[in-house]
Each structure stands twice: as structure tokens, then as C-alpha cells.
Write a structure and sequence with these properties.
The protein has helices spanning 17-20, 107-112, 114-120, 232-235, 248-254, 276-279; strands at 33-34, 46-50, 58-63, 75-83, 90-93, 101-104, 128-132, 147-156, 174-176, 182-184, 196-201, 213-222, 228-231, 239-242, 261-267, 290-300, 313-317. By secondary structure, the chain is mainly beta. Strands 3, 4, 5, 6, 7 and 8 form a 6-stranded antiparallel β-sheet that branches. Strand 12 (213-222) and strand 13 form a beta hairpin. The radius of gyration is 22 Å and the shape is elongated.
Length: 322
Amino acid sequence: MKPVRKTLTTSGAALSLALVLAGCSGPGVDSVELSNDPEPNSVPSVTFETPLNAEEAGAKELREGEGEEIAEGDTILLQAALYKGSDGTSIGETYSRGAGQVLQLEQDLQDSIPEMYEALVGAREGAIIAYSSPETSGAAGDESTSVEVYEVVRKIPTDIEGDMQDSPRGLPEVTENDEGVPTVGDPDGDAPERLVSEYLIEGDGEEVAEGDTVIANYVGVTWSDGEVFDSSYENGSPASFPLDNVIEGWQEGLKGKKQGSRVILSVPVDQAYGTEEDLGEDADYPAGSLLFVVDILAAVDTPEAPPADEPSASPSPSATEE
């Protein structure tokens, strides 16, 4: 969700799930166990025999979930932690980034990583799954295979239900195309000088709280010409983001709105990214006032960053090690 973030608080250890899922898991993952039952929103502590060398892809459920069952075609929010197979040291995790990763259980995932797909389908919200693969051999600087641990945070609805109201006076008309994607009409006149945040469809979910992680679909256009500068629909999946890590217009405009709602946001320049002069040439973000249509699919508590010295994995000597 690049255009919405003011800054990206990533570190060298933070993971992109797309990179993590390039690897899989195998028989070596059988030795992986949870050290304890982790608190909500905390990095799981695990143990496993070292060095771990998976000979083929496979997965193991470390903890059963107690929430809704995950089915084919569902969209889910995951948190992930990755460990070095040689000694159990942490390679990175997504919890400290807050947002987690949105994953769709579709044909592409089934074709590319069938073991992970099969482990997720039929699991329940709250499940923790370990995963390792020979394809990760050498990725962490040695010939061991990485241990990947995924927590299924929750299932994410993908549709907003209800009849859409007209846009507030002075804002462009919003319609839907044949795929149900919001389409914003051409802006007419000057952008409002103050933030406008109104329901187009009012849901009945809980309100978004300050600091929550929000999962949303959205379309963003510039007031100056009505051009789409970003869309989660074009990116292929909903976006997840801590509310503290986006532009002020999103922070203020989405706080207090109900989950399951479609919201129109008109964001003045001082609550967006700034003017062309502020941003300079070749800026990655659009200048001026902006307009968004945001479908608030869900909101969850944002995990706190784990202490820097907190161990997350502990190796145990391999039974075959001399």
C-alpha cells in the first residue's frame, strides 16, 4: 500500500511474506515444537533439532486454532517468524511491523506451494503452522533449511454489503464497475480545505480504534485531475497497515469508522503528502489534495514490537549429531 504510507518502518530483519513463501517445508519440520502457548500478538517461541535440513516440502500444525475454519478461496491475515535451520537464531518476523500480511488461498498458491496451501485450508483462526523446504537451503548463509512459522490471525471478509449512498455535497460521484470495484468520477471545483470523512456504506462492525491495524481495499485519486494513483484492487489483494503508519488524513478519517463500511475521504494537502515543492522532483507520492474510497474490511490490535533481546527460537541437538 505504498502511496498511503507516510513512511515505511521496516528494518533489515523485517520480512516480506512474498519472499518467505518462496520457500516451503519438509520432513525436517517434524521436530519443530512450540516452547509455550504464545500470548496474542506475540512472536511464537519454538524449538527444533539442529541442523535442520528438510529433504522435501511439508508443513506441521504446532497449535490448533479456535476461531473460524479457513476454506478454499478465503483471504486471511498472517503473522510470520523465520528461523535459521542451523542454530535456531531469528532471521526476521512480521510482528514488529504491525501490519502482518494478507494472503489469498487461491489457485496460484495451491500450484506454487501446495503443502502450505493444504495446511491452511481447514485450519482455524489462531492456528500456528511451521514450514520448511529444501528450496531455502543456503538462503541464510549455510546449507540448512529455514524454519518458517505462521500464525493465522483471522479470516478477512472481502466484500462490503449494503446500498451505496450518494457522495457528500462537493465530492465526486462514486459508482461500481462490473467487478464491484469503486470508480470515482471526475472532481469538479476546488478540494475541501478540511478533511472530509463520510460513510458511503455504513457497516455494523466494531469501530476502528486509534493504533489498530486496518485491512482494507481502496482506490486513491488526485483532486487535480481525477487520475487513479493507487488501488489495492490493481495490486491484487487487500492492504494491511497500522493506522499509526499512514498519512494523517487516513489516521483521522478512519478512526471511529465501523468495520464493514465504505468510506469516502477527501484529504487536504496538509494531511496528505504535501505540495510539489514539499515533495520535490521524482517523488514517489502524489502532491496536492487527494480523494480515497476505502472499504474497511477488518481491524485488529497491532502487535507490540518484541524486545530486542527476546529469544524466539531455541535449538536442540539433532538425534543424529555426534
